[in-house]
Design goal:
Largest sheet: 7 strands, mixed
CATH superfamily of the largest domain: Type I PLP-dependent aspartate aminotransferase-like (Major domain)
CATH topology of the largest domain: Aspartate Aminotransferase, domain 2
Helix content: 40-55%
Strand order of the largest sheet: 4-10-9-8-7-5-6
CATH class of the largest domain: Alpha Beta
Number of domains: 2
Distance between the termini: 37 Å
Number of strands: 16
Strand content: 15-25%
Length: 448
């Protein structure tokens, strides 16, 4: 490896980073991570911190999960790659499809379409939704509905159903026929409603109104995160998802849950759908499916879609990726799924999630810069920072960056996105690790 000076000098010269400007990479060089162990990461200067971000919502089992590493190494020794396009398959992908069918059986999902990651999974679900309606003779159902503040990846389809202008404006015009309804976001919503249950009803009514306006016969699917993640960890009232499912079913609209973040235990339940007691027609998954050790994803598919595709000999899926069902990724996912179940990570996610959520609320009582704390469902917590609690004016970027820097110096990697400070640590976090994150946040807020 090149020395640290070389790496620092050349980072911004030859690599463009996601979700920032090339100029920012020059002006504000990123932290260079060179090592990881357990739930901690170390940078090029030897500073070690607890990873409160979990990689990017995906390292659920931490950085020292030997069974997954072994599975990858063993698969590379036997079959490092082969295609799953028509006419060929591989043993690891077949076994994984069976295990995922067992794992997601309570969600009513028993078929898998493999992808290379979350954005691919969303794109696949959108495309299959349109094809489903064509197979049933309703070719006019092409539109998509989603939530404002929702995040669905970076492909054209995913960006089009995204509910945040930051991921849309620079790339417009996007896919036509995508419409957004208000999210059940109690801290900021167009209804000025602070009661979560009443807000859920108002958002569900907005969905009904949009369907009536567009015409139910023109809409292919509704896609939503069970808990909005990148938009600032926005959990709805427990009544919201069941209302959405009922509305979709009544109008012949498919329901897609985007669980790239929430599947595999993140919420304190094995899936976000299971958390709210719903059964989607499709579920987009990725991230924790391989613990971040290999790019991989899976779209899980439910009964009415299975019947439409498998009963029609002409229902060819004209879609797929070179790395769909990659044997190394499938082997990693098999090992990850087994370890995830063995450790029963949902229990720890719930316990440590409550610890972090309550700890952040304690910080809110101490610092006026904290306008809202959201979470309470597993290891997903957000602190929304404001410059004025009364007006809810968002904090400026420079101050938010100082909070981040102060927390990192004090021992925790956290993520700042706009005014939101987001926590999504590994699901194997210990009580001591959680306290380290909270102490580091305390130091970060104290620094400003």
């Amino acid at each position: 490896m090149k020395d640290s000076n070389f790496l620092k000098e050349n980072n911004g010269r030859h690599m463009w980073h996601p979700m920032t400007s090339p100029k920012d990479s020059h002006d504000n060089p990123p932290i260079i991570i060179t090592g990881a162990s357990g739930v901690s990461v170390s940078d090029i200067d030897g500073h070690t911190v607890v990873d409160g971000v979990g990689g990017l919502w995906n390292v659920n089992l931490g950085y020292s999960c030997q069974p997954v590493k072994d599975a990858i190494a063993n698969q590379l020794d036997t079959l490092p790659y082969y295609s799953t396009f028509r006419g060929t398959s591989n043993d690891a992908a077949i076994e994984l499809s069976y295990e995922l069918g067992q794992f997601f059986e309570p969600d009513g999902l028993s078929r898998a379409f493999f992808t290379s990651g979350g954005s691919d999974s969303v794109e696949t679900a959108l495309r299959l939704a349109r094809q489903y309606h064509k197979l049933r003779g309703e070719a006019g159902r092409t539109k998509f509905l989603s939530l404002k503040k929702g995040y669905h990846g970076t492909h054209i389809g995913g960006a089009s159903v995204n509910g945040n202008a930051n991921f849309r404006t620079a790339y417009e015009p996007l896919l036509p026929g995508c419409y957004h309804i208000p999210a059940p976001y109690t801290y900021r919503n167009p209804f000025n409603e602070t009661d979560p249950e009443r807000l859920a009803q108002l958002c569900a009514q907005a969905l009904e109104d949009e369907i009536a306006f567009q015409g139910a016969g023109t809409i292919a699917a509704m896609i939503m995160e069970p808990i909005l993640g990148a938009g600032g960890v926005i959990p709805p009232h427990k009544s919201f998802a069941p209302m959405v499912q009922e509305i979709c079913n009544r109008n012949g609209i498919l329901l897609i849950t985007d669980e790239v973040i929430t599947a595999y235990g993140r919420t304190g339940a094995w899936s976000g759908a299971r958390l709210w007691g719903i059964k989607p027609d499709m579920m987009a998954t990725a991230k924790a499916i391989t613990n971040g050790y290999f790019p991989f994803g899976a779209v899980m598919i439910g009964d009415r879609m299975i019947e439409a595709f498998e009963s029609d000999p002409n229902a060819k899926i004209g879609h797929g990726y070179t790395y769909s069902g990659h044997p190394v990724g499938a082997a990693a996912a098999l090992a990850c799924l087994a370890e995830t179940k063995r450790l029963n990570v949902v229990e720890n996610a719930a316990a440590r999630g409550t610890q972090l959520f309550e700890g952040c609320k304690t910080l809110m009582a101490k610092y006026d810069i904290i306008g809202d704390v959201r979470g309470g469902h597993g290891l997903m917590t957000a602190i929304e920072m404001v410059s004025d609690r009364t007006t809810k004016k968002p904090i400026d970027a420079a101050t938010a960056a100082k909070v981040y820097e102060g927390a990192y110096a004090a021992g925790a990697m956290v993520r700042v996105s706009g005014p939101n400070l987001i926590l999504s640590p590994p699901l194997v976090l210990t009580e001591t690790d959680a306290n380290t994150i909270l102490s580091a946040l305390d130091a970060g807020f104290a620094s400003v």
